[in-house]
Known about the structure:
Layout: E1 13-15, E2 22-24, E3 28-32, H1 36-41, E4 52-56, E5 61-63, E6 67-69, E7 77-79, E8 81-87, E9 93-101, E10 103-104, H2 105-114, H3 119-122, E11 128-130, E12 134-135, H4 136-139, E13 146-151, E14 154-160, H5 168-176, E15 186-188, E16 196-197, E17 203-208, E18 212-219
Parallel strand pairs: 3-15, 5-11, 6-18
Antiparallel strand pairs: 1-2, 3-4, 7-10, 7-16, 8-9, 8-15, 9-11, 9-12, 13-14, 13-17, 17-18
The chain binds manganese (II) ion.
Amino acid sequence: MVNYAFPPLPRPALPIVGSDVVFPVRRIFCVGRNYSAHAREMGHDPDREPPFFFTKPGDALIGDGCDIPYPLATENLHHEAELVVAFGPNAQVFGYAIGNDLTRRDIQAQAKKQGRPWDMAKGFDLSAACGPVHLVKDTGPMTSGKIALTVNGKLRQQADLGDMIWPVFDIVVALYGLVSLTAGDLIYTGTPAGVGALVPGDTCVVSIEGLGSLTNKIVPPTHK
Length: 224
Ligand code: MN
C-alpha cells in the first residue's frame, strides 16, 4: 500500500462504444506529416522523410461534446483531424477513435525556426480532443475510409485514411523501434491538408467513416 502525500488525480480515460467500462489512457504519441498534401502545405517533401513522433501528456485529453477554452499564449490555434489508434494489453490494437490534434501553430513555427522542441506547441492543456474508442472487432483495420473536418459546418479538411504515407501498421512498427508500447497508449496518426485556425465561438467537427464524429466548441479563454 502506497501512502501518497496527496490524492493522485484520476487517470484520464475514454468511453468505449457499446461498453460500460472505460479505456484508461497512459501516453499519447502523435505522428507528424503523414499525408503528402499536408507535408507540402507545411513546406516539406513527403517522399524523403521517415515517420517521426512527438507526444502530448495523457491528461491533455478532452472528450467529445466538451467545450475547449481558447488556450493560453497563442494567437493561432489550429485544428488537425486525425485517426487515433488505442493500444490494449499484450501490445495489441484495442480500437480506434477520432482525434483533433490541437496545435498552437505560432509557437510551433517559432520552435521550428529556433530548432527548439514542439512540446509547448503540441502538448498544452486540453490539446488532445478524442472521441470514444470503437473496438477493433467492430471497426476492422481502418486502412481506408473518409476523414473530414468542418468548422461551423464549412468543410476544411477532407481525405481518405488510405492516403496516409505511413499506414497504421508501419507507424506501429516504427514506434516499437523507439519505445515499449503498452496498454493505454494512444497514437494520433497525422492530419490531411487543410489545417487552419479556430477562434472562440467556432464549432469543430471531425468525422471518420465508421467511427461517427467528434464535436468540440472553442469558447473564450478562462484566464485573464
Ligand atoms: Mn497532428
